[in-house]
Specification:
Elements: E1 4-13, E2 16-26, E3 31-36, H1 42-50, E4 57-62, E5 65-66, H2 69-72, E6 75-78, H3 90-100, H4 105-118, H5 134-146, E7 152-156, H6 164-179, E8 184-187, H7 191-197, E9 200-205, E10 208-213, H8 215-221, E11 225-229, E12 244-250, E13 253-258, H9 264-272, E14 279-283, H10 287-295
Length: about 300
């Protein structure tokens, strides 16, 4: 199986380019983090994968074949704009949605019981959705994406507004589905969570995929950083070191970024010239650092 493939998807609204040859894949059993600034094209990509929108060019495939209406019956989708019926009871709604995806009445009821129990809302099955807290509505929305036992999961900001306990529950569920071989793609602005959960991450800017890989690959590809504790150094002690950019200073600690060709030994020499060096540590940028660097790069013209 090849999982879910997004192949050179493009979408334009008049003069606005929403997607420009968006390309990535989500492999079976993989958690894929889909990150980018607001308006970068994440939701548009997901809606095209679901068939809610049509692409101007490109193709969406599952298991090597174009996605059809039948394929989409087996996709679990959680939209950013939550789509539950507010006056419908939780169990009634989930059973109804499972039936729409082709489950028998008995299987739909059993799956509703399973997922409301698993997601901690079993006691609210007979409550109207509008009477639930926002966090519990979020749990029910995830249950709606899972109740028909999908083969693919596409989740738009599934962790938005959740408390830490609910985040842990949802994280565990996503890991379980991936362990069953389900391709899972989700967007999120919580980059620490993406870094912790995901097998691979794609960073989107202006409708294009600009970086994709494991967190380790992305971090190793970013500019290295140095943390240097120089208690007797004055401001600007590292300004003359070739290829080095000062990111900031807190107390006696200076944080530096090494550009292409920069030598950390030159930094060490400059630091020692100021007096004692209490710390000299090389660090890789976090996913959040890399994200800031990528999304603030000059936009690609349409």
């Amino acid at each position: 199986m090849t999982g879910l493939e997004i192949d050179a998807i493009s979408k334009r609204y008049g003069d606005v380019v929403a997607l420009r040859e968006m390309t990535f894949d989500v492999r079976p059993g993989e958690l894929f983090g889909f990150v980018g600034s607001n308006g970068a094209g994440k939701t548009t990509t997901m809606r095209i994968a679901l068939g809610v929108l049509s692409a101007d060019a490109g193709e969406v495939r599952y298991d090597g074949q174009p996605v059809t209406h039948e394929t989409r019956r087996h996709i679990g989708y959680m939209p950013e704009e939550r789509g539950l019926y507010p006056k419908m009871k939780v169990a009634e709604q989930l059973t109804y949605l499972a039936r729409l995806h082709g489950m028998s009445a008995a299987d739909a009821r059993a799956s509703t019981e399973k997922w409301t129990e698993r997601l901690g809302v079993a006691a609210r099955r007979e409550d109207e959705v509008q009477k639930l807290s926002l966090g519990n509505q979020q749990r029910v929305q995830l249950a709606a994406a899972l109740v028909h036992e999908p083969r693919i999961l596409v989740l738009d900001e599934p962790f938005s507004g959740l408390d830490p306990v609910a985040v842990d529950v949802m994280s565990a569920v996503l890991k379980e589905k991936a362990a069953e071989g389900v391709p899972v793609v989700f967007s999120s602005h919580q980059l620490d969570l993406v870094e912790r959960l995901c097998d691979r991450v794609g960073i989107v800017r202006s409708g294009q995929m600009v970086e994709v890989g494991t967190v380790g690959e992305l971090r190793s590809g970013g500019a290295a950083r140095l943390r240097v504790d120089v208690p007797e150094a004055g401001d600007g002690w590292a300004d003359g070191v070739p290829g080095v950019r000062v990111l900031g200073r807190k107390g006696t600690v200076t944080e530096l970024e090494l550009g292409a060709g920069a030598d950390d030994q030159d930094v060490l020499k400059a630091a020692l010239a100021t007096g004692p060096v209490r710390e000299f540590a090389r660090e890789q940028p976090s996913l959040a650092d890399l994200f800031r660097s990528v999304v603030t790069t000059e936009e690609v013209p349409a």
